[in-house]
Amino acid sequence: MLEIMISIIFFVVIAFISANISGVLGPKKTTPEKETPFECGVPIVEKFKPLYTPHYFFIAILFLIFDIEAAYLFPWALIYKTAKNKGELLLILGLFFIIIVLAFTYVWKKGGLEWE
Amino acid sequence: MNYTLLVLIKIIVLFAWLMIFALYATLAERKVSAVIQDRHGANRAKILGISSFGIFQPFADALKMLFKEDYIPPFTDKFMFKFAPVITFFFSALVIIAIPFGEPVKIGKEIIKLQVIDPDIALLLIFALSSMSIYGIILGGWSSNNKYSFLGGMRATSQIVSYEVALILSIIGLIMVYPSLRLSEIVNYQSTLLWGWIPKWGILLQPLAFIIFIIAAIAETKRAPFDLPESESEIIGFFLEYSGIRFGVYMLTDFVETIMLSLIITTLFFGGWNIPYLFSGLKLSNGTIFSGFVFPWGKQLAISINWVSILQIIAFQIKTVIVFVFLLLVRWTFPRLRFDQLMELGWKSLIPLALFNIVVTAIIIAIV
Question: How far apart are CA B215 and CA B189, in angstroms?
Answer without folding.
Answer: 25
